[in-house]
Design a protein that fits this description.
The chain is an alpha+beta fold. The chain has helices at 14-19, 26-38, 59-64, 71-83, 123-133, 157-164, 186-189, and strands at residues 95-101, 106-110, 139-146, 171-175, 181-185. The chain folds into two domains: 15-44, no CATH class; 59-189, Cytidine Deaminase, domain 2 (3-Layer(aba) Sandwich). Its EC number is 3.5.4.5.
């Protein structure tokens, strides 16, 4: 079976180059087309999730991640334990995650694959979904582990957006099997992001001509 060819390595046509040239108005037309397409959006819901990263952290969560205590090591260890349960017969790529809720409760998850590939779920989403199903929506940190030795594990784009749903200021710990880690916030992991609060912002419903 012939491999599908990506389109970014195909030769650009003169028409496409001209369309987006700075001298022409093709880019404006392209943007205008996206605005026209917006008019067909199906979004009947008017209730939105509220970001929770501005809620006050509890003492339990703060203490858990304090440098003086061993909570961070425990959180990372929980993620490595979860990795052992990964169901990944197709990729052989094991991932574990441990998410710390605002009150110090930890929820773990692993990646679970499926013969219908797109039905698989990543460890990060698994852990967060488990927490949400137990009534938690405010998180302080998440630790992610894999079998990669040469580099820190990095979440896929879908998981980054999934984490962003619950705020952009909570911490992410990307780890290696030796226990070393790289720390960043969800906002740093997914900059210039789209979140629930964007759905509440003022919108322009009329098509504007450029």
């Amino acid at each position: 079976m012939a491999n599908l060819q990506t389109v970014d390595d195909r030769e650009e046509t003169e028409a496409a180059r001209a369309y987006l040239s700075k001298e022409g108005d093709g880019l404006k037309k392209l943007i205008h087309k996206s605005i026209q397409a917006r008019e067909f959006a199906y979004c009947p819901y008017n209730k939105f999730c509220v970001t929770v990263d501005d809620r006050e952290e509890t003492e339990a969560a703060r203490a858990y991640l304090s440098k003086e205590g061993g909570g961070l090591k425990k959180l990372i260890h929980k993620s490595t334990q979860a990795r052992e349960f990964a169901y990944c017969p197709y990729s052989k790529f094991r991932v574990g995650a441990a998410v710390l809720a605002h009150d110090g409760t930890i929820f773990t998850g692993c990646n679970v694959e499926n013969a219908c590939y797109n039905l698989g779920i990543c460890a990060e989403r698994n852990a967060i979904s488990k927490a949400v199903s137990e009534g938690y929506q405010s998180f302080r940190a998440i630790a992610i582990s894999s079998d990669l030795h040469e580099q820190f594990i990095s979440p896929c784009g879908g998981c980054r957006q999934f984490m962003r749903e619950f705020g952009d200021s909570w911490d992410v710990y990307l780890t290696k099997p030796d226990g070393s880690y790289e720390e960043m916030t969800v906002g740093e992991l997914l900059p210039v992001s789209f979140g629930p609060e964007d759905l509440t912002k003022k919108k322009v419903h009329a098509i504007q001509e450029f």
